[in-house]
Amino acid sequence: MDFLFITQQTLSATIGVNTIIFALAAIGLNMHFGYTGLLNFGQAGFLAIGAYSVAVPVISFGLSLWLAFLIGIFNSILFALILGIPTLRLRADYLAIVTIAAAEIVRQIARSATFNSSLGGSDGITGKFGKDFFDLNHFKSGVDTPILRFNANDLWVVITGWLLVALIVFLMWIMVNSPWGRLMRAIREDEDAVRSLGKNVYLYKMQSLIIGGVIGACGGFVYALSRQSVQPDNYGTALTFFAYTVLILGGAARVFSPVIGAMIFWFLIVFIEQLLRQGVSNDLIPDWLIGANQVSQIRFMLMGLGLMLLMIFRPQGIFGDKKELALDAKA
Amino acid sequence: MQRHSGVVGDFVAVTEKAPGSAKPDPILIADQITRNFGGLTAVSVAHLEIQRGSITALIGPNGAGKTTFFNLLTGFDSPNSGSWSFNGKVLNGIPPHKVARLGMVRTFQLTKALYRLTVLENMALGARGQKGESVLRSLLPWIWKAQEREIEQKAIAILANFKLIDKKDDFAAALSGGQRKLLEMARALMVEPEMVMLDEPMAGVNPALKQSLLEHIKELRNEGKTVLFVEHDMDMVREISDWVVVMSQGEVIAEGTPESVMKNEQVIEAYLGAHHNINLSAEGDS
């Protein structure tokens, strides 16, 4: 067993690119679900829109990457408006149905043969659309230490990505502790009560949907840039549910919980995977029990088991307050 | 008697005790309001005026359409026909939050305390024109901090009056049912309404708190506010209301002072059924 290798892989993943992507997706969901009570099951759609918005303008239309970021933000606002206008007046469960469908529509359009020339069909888009971004990278080599390992490009993505996460978390922290944030939490508790006090609930829910969606699109930017490629099937419903897992793992309606949740999520997945792989290849785990090509499925099973245990023994998540959760019973 | 003095007393004296009667200075006027749910007509109010500065009770048997009528007046539901105005402003098609901003604020039959907000946060939410409720200005705390402190002071003053001050940092969910009713009423006052609409303020409130709730409602009138409330508790209706409107099967069937409506044949009939004085026992006159 190469424990040093396991440690290196696990720690690199804990603060790595995927953690940043999932943290951003979950911060957006925290705005929607944690603070406003909007059951958005289409967060993957916002990430897809962010990812395609940086790739398509650069590759298919030859625009600058910086303009593509603005297009991405604009598109995610537009998507939030399209989702929100018909559904935010309805009950919460309708939003869940509509968002899950809308995100699938986005993915299906992206992979459709009709738009093959611009969106790349089911193969997606691969190319050097992140060139402008990586040109700014002054790290000529990556890091390769016993505990952390990133190549030069990943190092640049990780550093800028964490700066982005820090900025967004800071802004979120100010916002949720303002009267605006109080209004959002009030809407989560009972929107009719908020209406009766003279507040335009529809407007505020729309603001929440847009803000959380734009943060999700930022996750899409990181996803696309880090891989220099966009694959439509990466933005399926599983991405949304993993983002919810991350959020609930950390504890909803806490500013830092999506970040910590994403770190724990990726720590566990990579740690379990590496441990199993090493165990299988060193014959510590017999072949009849787990084969080498079953490891990647079994890590998710164990992850699922871990989550079940968390929900049983710590339903409020890492940061949540159990007393506060109990109040939800509306006794 | 205090309630029969001044403007309110005059209004009681000069107003005809009949459904749809005209008031000297109505704050709320409703005309031909109907609301159907499928084949059922839940509300069918031909004409109703509510006197400014009075405490008016809206009573009636279960299913009479009182709460539906409340929802219609406050914009939480839309009527199939009819029009109504508040302070001379027609309210047709006005969404509930704008109705509240115009000065007509309601509470709910099933109390809507915001459970995972503290009592103080519940209160602060009611304040009008908060700069920090704008999404962009929320990021600039120095713009709204001073206003926030003023709101807090005002909230604390009202909470002290409602004897909820010790609970100000507790979650609203930690309050008893009666305290939540008090909180909901106190929160409505943060909006500085001209008219307060209370949907069953006494439901589930213990007798000790009841008395204090009654005092608060009387106090509202003393401050010149108008109160319209739905209530089943007849003691309360008798004790504090200047005027009583009785609804049955969606219609206003009687209006008048508490004493006059309780003697009204139609009202007794509505509550007890048309045949309440017929002996239903099989043995006849045994």
Overview of this protein structure:
The complex is a heterodimer of chains A (331) and B (286). Chain A is an all-alpha fold and 331 residues long. In chain A, helix 3 runs parallel beside helix 5 (92-111). The radius of gyration of chain A is 21 Å and the shape is globular. The model of chain A has no long low-confidence stretch (mean pLDDT 91). In chain A, strand 2 and strand 3 form a beta hairpin. Chain A has 15 helices and four strands. Chain A has one domain. Chain B is of the alpha/beta class and 286 residues long. In chain B, 36% of the residues lie in helices and 22% in strands. In chain B, strands 6-7-8-3-9-10 form a six-stranded mixed sheet, sandwiched between helices. In chain B, strands 2-1-4-5 form a four-stranded antiparallel sheet, covered by helices on one side. In chain B, helix 7 links the parallel strand 7 (195-199) and strand 8 (226-230). Chain B starts with 5 loop residues before the first helix and ends in a 14-residue tail after the last helix. Chain A binds chain B through residues 171, 174-175, 178-183, 185-186, 188-190, 192-201, 207, 211, 324, 327-328, 330-331, and chain B through 74, 76, 95-98, 100-101, 105-108, 112-117, 121-122, 124-126, 128, 130-135, 137-139, 141, 144, 148, 171, 173-174, 184, 187-188, 190-191.
Q: Any descriptors?
A:
heterodimer, A: 331 residues, mainly alpha, two-stranded antiparallel sheet, two-stranded antiparallel ribbon, 15 helices, 4 strands, 2% strand, globular, B: 286 residues, alpha/beta, Rossmann fold, 6-stranded mixed β-sheet, 4-stranded antiparallel β-sheet, 10 helices, 10 strands, 22% strand, disordered N terminus
